Amino acid sequence: MHNKIITKSHVLSAALIMLLAAPVFAKDDHSKKGHHGNHLPNMFSSENEHGRDATFSTAGFIDLDNPFFKSLGTNGRSCASCHIPSQGWTITPAGVQKIFDETDGLDPLFRLVDGANSPIADVTTLEKRRTAYSMLLEKGNIRVGIGIPADAEFELTNADDPYGYANENELSLFRRPMPTTNLKFISAVMWEGRETTLMPNSGDCLYGTDTCFSPVAFDLGTQANHATLGHAEALLDLTDEEREAIVAFELGLFTAQIHDNDAGNLSAEKALGGPKALKKQYYYFGINDTLVGDYQTGEPFNPAVMSLYDSWDRIKPNKSSNNTKNARAAIARGQALFNTKPIMISGVKGINDDLNINVLPGTCTTCHNTPNSGNHSTPMPLDIGISDESRRTPDMPLYTLKNKATNEIIKTTDPGRALITGKWKDIGRFKGPVLRSVASRPPYFHDGSAADLPAVVEFYNNRFNIGLTEAEKADLVAFLAAL
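RESULT FIELD:
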């Protein structure tokens, strides 16, 4: 692999090139504010399919001199290679394709270690690189290689990998990079929580249990170090100063949709869209917990989790109203559906089995219980069927796992948390993401299997037989797109 020494000026240039590689500055924001020095301004704005988002940093600006933007490994990558501000602080297929086309697939994003479908793929020509990086190009998926724990309750009996690499020592798992913004609201780090550390007697404990977790800031520092050693192929650990700087930078970022193509300004008429209101949103571990109630106040779980667009409830759409009014009314209806539409939750590992209940009456907020962020306020990885064999597409591996004690068989595209715990019951379990600025980062789910927000809504409608009408689906999409 070709490596080169990169100076500070090269890193800054590369960071700015990456920022400009996809739709980046909204023209009005760029012309008025621009970037100054090695900074991007607060309320840095990017366009997406549904409108425009913006990022607010508690530092007062987005600091491109932070180690987050520096190449600290051997392959030219930085954190910003896979967490691009203009792509929802992750990467999107459209953005990845643009970078590929502009660099002939030679940008640091395209590296065999995890950018390719296989780490031994042939990337000697442009067309071979296009094939080798197809999952990255088409779904924005990074390959994560994890083996089955030696003491696991299951074993691999077959690896049907279209790329001819995966084995029991290193399963190929294709996953979307999680956004590095709105991290104030997370309770677990990484899709299957592999960077979430159990820590006895810490402050973040599941209610009434001795299961406790280290502070998220600590885990984010560990994650940054592991990412630098792995994704950037660094030879040395990050220094304590570098870890602290990256974590402080990430925890200071808030991103949300500020403008909707149809509804316009998402903070108009006393609405609370946008990142400035999000920064002020109250949060702590266990807030509004679904199972036992709020950890601090003792109040029971309140399913009315989302209230951003309460002020738009009064808007009554009619044929004579302008489109903006009608669009705002749709967003308010979607918020109400998110809070109140009944869902009979069944067959979900992490809920129905843990609670020993066949059907749990709930709503979207049963799992997305954190006020106005949509995350779950305690670690709660769930299996809703995303990695089931029935959803397998030809571009995904399929793994056949056998329970060592019972000989039961499960076929899955990704064992999820089970690769960390070794537990049979954890196969297919993943955490949910923070929903704010979700419009900026298609495709969706851990594997990028839902191309857009309508596909996400359709999945849940079918999976739980919700019975949404076409109008209700459209309203839910309108609300999600306004987050």
